[in-house]
Task: inverse folding
C-alpha cells in the first residue's frame, strides 16, 4: 500500500524526523529489522489478587463502562490509583464509533493526574503522526485508550493477571467503538492485546511482531513503538511510520 502524501503531510513527516522518501516505498519493503528490546515477562515477585469484574460489563454502554472502570476493584491496582483513565480526550457523549483505536501502555502518574494519555512531547509526536496520516484527534477518527485503566506503581511492572483482568474493559471498548484498525503502542499494550489469542506470540520481540496483521476482538491489529520510545530512539521513527502505513492500508476508504 502506498500512502499518497500532500505537502502538509510531508512536512509533518519531516517534523517527526522521517525522511519523506520513506512514504512512497511499499510498506513491505520499508520494514527494517528492528533492534528494540523484546516485550519480556515482567518480574512476578508480586502475586495478583483478583476479584470479580463489574457485573454486566459485556452489555454496558460507553458511559456505564467508564463509570464501572472508575469503581472497579477487580485487581490490586484499584488500591493505589488516584483515578482511572478510561480514554484520552474523548467526551463521554461522543459518537462511539471510531476509525482508528490506539491502545497505549498503562497511565503513568502524570497521565493519571491529568486524566489524559500521551502528554507533552509524547502527545506532540503522536499528533504529528496522526496529521501525517491525514487524521486528527477527533472522536470519529481516533480514540486512544490505555491497556490498563489504572496506574501501576512505579516500583513494578504490570502483572500478567492484571493485564488479563482489565482486558475485559478493552474488549468492551472495541465492541462499542467498532474501529477499522487497532494500533497497539508499547510493550504492555502489545503483550495484552496479543495474549488474548496467542499467548506465545506476546513474548516475541517487537521486531518479530511488526509488519504483520494480528487480531483482537475480531479487529485487525498492527503493533508499533510507543511515542515515548520513539523520542528515546529516533531511528525507530521510520519503522513506526511503516507500521502506520500498514495500519492505514487496513482502513476502508470513505
Ligand atoms: S486495572 Fe482494570 S481490572 Fe484492575 S482495578 Fe483498574 S479497571 Fe479494574
Result:
Amino acid at each position: 500500500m502506498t500512502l499518497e502524501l500532500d505537502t502538509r503531510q510531508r512536512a509533518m513527516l519531516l517534523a517527526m524526523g522521517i525522511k519523506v522518501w520513506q512514504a512512497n516505498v511499499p510498506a513491505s519493503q520499508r520494514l527494517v529489522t528492528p533492534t528494540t528490546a523484546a516485550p519480556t515477562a515482567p518480574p512476578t515477585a508480586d502475586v495478583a489478587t483478583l476479584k470479580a469484574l463489574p457485573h454486566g460489563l459485556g452489555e454496558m454502554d460507553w458511559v456505564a463502562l467508564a463509570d464501572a472502570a472508575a469503581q472497579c476493584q477487580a485487581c490490586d491496582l484499584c488500591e493505589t490509583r488516584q483515578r482511572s483513565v478510561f480514554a484520552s480526550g474523548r467526551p463521554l457523549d461522543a459518537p462511539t464509533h471510531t476509525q482508528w483505536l490506539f491502545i497505549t501502555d498503562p497511565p503513568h502518574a502524570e497521565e493519571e493526574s491529568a486524566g489524559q494519555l500521551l502528554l507533552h512531547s509524547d502527545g506532540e509526536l503522536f499528533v504529528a503522526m496522526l496529521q501525517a496520516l491525514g487524521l486528527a484527534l477527533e472522536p470519529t477518527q481516533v480514540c486512544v485508550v490505555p491497556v490498563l485503566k489504572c496506574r501501576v506503581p512505579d516500583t513494578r511492572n504490570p502483572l500478567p493477571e492484571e493485564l488479563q483482568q482489565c482486558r475485559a474493559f478493552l474488549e468492551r471498548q472495541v465492541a462499542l467503538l467498532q474501529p477499522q484498525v487497532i494500533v497497539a503502542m508499547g510493550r504492555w499494550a502489545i503483550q495484552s492485546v496479543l495474549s488474548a489469542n496467542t499467548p506465545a506470540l506476546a513474548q516475541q520481540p517487537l521486531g518479530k511482531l511488526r509488519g504483520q496483521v494480528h487480531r483482537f476482538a475480531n479487529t485487525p491489529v498492527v503493533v508499533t513503538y510507543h511515542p515515548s520510545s520513539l523520542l528515546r530512539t529516533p531511528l525507530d521513527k521510520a519503522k513506526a511510520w511503516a507500521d502506520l502505513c500498514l495500519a492505514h492500508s487496513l482502513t476502508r476508504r470513505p
